[in-house]
């Protein structure tokens, strides 16, 4: 039985894109939290005993697979080789949408772009250009994304109001509809992440969000 | 025991699907079921569509016309001086239709394999976690060479409405006859003629398609009860007798529009 | 030595977010491509022998880790990215046509399916399974479609050559016969001229044609 549950834990942690808390794993596997931790600890020991090139570790309160530290030279070479040294067109568009329309949820971005955006959102989030700035107060508590101070710095601007103005531009009806869907006005913006000295008033208002007019 | 054949098309996907279904799955000899019934089943499906799909409708008309023509060959009186060219042309059309049906069936079967692969593949989720944060700082900056203007144009690109798909109607510009028009012509001519043979009714027509469309129109008028049909002798001429009001308004004609190319 | 190189490969594939080509792995590890493939195949076999909850597989021309199919009930509770959304029969048929006949235009697909395919082509293009691979050199410059690596990934196959040969699907003689029978042309040219009562029974009467009565 333990073997079967270990396999389930291996599968789940393998496909997760961020560390998974034992509580969540316990919920999915219907095991106790202690049991989950015990099984994962056993697995970690197995990988160590088999001198795998990866590890199962507990970081930031959760479990994840990562490359073994002694393989860093190879991983670094892989990273520097720049498998994707350029931002794809899809990623750039997604970044631009977040820049102008923040705070915005994954679902809203997907509705605008007409495709699933999970991959590109993760890429630009990992690179630190965007981050979670709030949660949708509605049901589901969707993560709302905004650009980071690192993005502003990288672009050489002080605040979002320095983004080039988009005058006289009316987005398509489908875009407006996508934005209206599930958009809440009373979004609480996390000032530590928002990345500018300027107050929340400088951010796009709901009107801006809806008609795409970003006159600063 | 006479049993009318009911055309059932629960998940209809176009005329090829319908034909394949009828011939292969139901093992029906198309000569022995009513074309009108196929037409009816088809019209029901077309009505279910939110918008009239011209491609589907014209494709259907084409196939219906071929079928009607094939049927006519068995129905109309034989001609001693039958035109061999016409004969070959008909064979050619039939073979073409069969070839297309075979093509369609080939990919239908191939699609099942893809469906199986897909169903199997979704049981596994790929690892997409990517790099640990300790490697992030050495990762190349993806924003190299990108400035504010690039961000702005990317935004405009993303927010521009996607082009709405348009149904091309280029391919039907040369279809000059519609069943509706043919019905209207008949409604104009028939009350004056009283009783007339189909041969007589079509003797002035040159194009095969026009004759086929006239035949469809006659069937339509029969279905709606405006004409009686009589074929006194096997392979003899079909006679058409107007039984509607002598002053008939074509506007009262119901439900023919869907045929229109 | 092999053990060390296997560890390096494990580490690199673990941090990749899409299938990694053997060529790239060979470059980073300074091994031959064949050697890379051999080592990864060994690793895949080890995981299988140890009944791990994950697999190392070759898909869309590259190597990746994925959850073991028999753990899908657990993984499904966790991954809800809409990727597993069912494909309609129409989408599968269209994909099959593009997969086997690429490069192919919309009009050519429509000719095979006998229906308008604009909607379904757009859907599978948005999902990223097909894309524009060329333009028809003729007038009109019609877009020619082909399948993408995402298609291979989604189908769980390494390359198009993993699909069964299209010849396997060509209908057999029985089907051809059935179609020919269903659509037979039966014009008997009788030199003595028509009207023979004898053959009348073989032919449908006008009544049959009109009300579909089939006395059999």
Automatic annotation (TrEMBL), chains A, C:
Pfam families: SMC_ScpB (PF04079). Keywords: Cell cycle, Cell division, Chromosome partition, Cytoplasm. The keyword Cell inner membrane does not apply. GO terms for biological process: cell division; chromosome separation. SUPFAM superfamilies: Winged helix' DNA-binding domain. Residues 195-216 are annotated as: Disordered. PANTHER family: SEGREGATION AND CONDENSATION PROTEIN B (PTHR34298:SF2). This is Unannotated protein.
TrEMBL record, chain B:
InterPro entries: ScpA, ScpA-like_C. This is Unannotated protein. The lineage of its organism: unclassified sequences, metagenomes, ecological metagenomes. It holds the Pfam family SMC_ScpA.
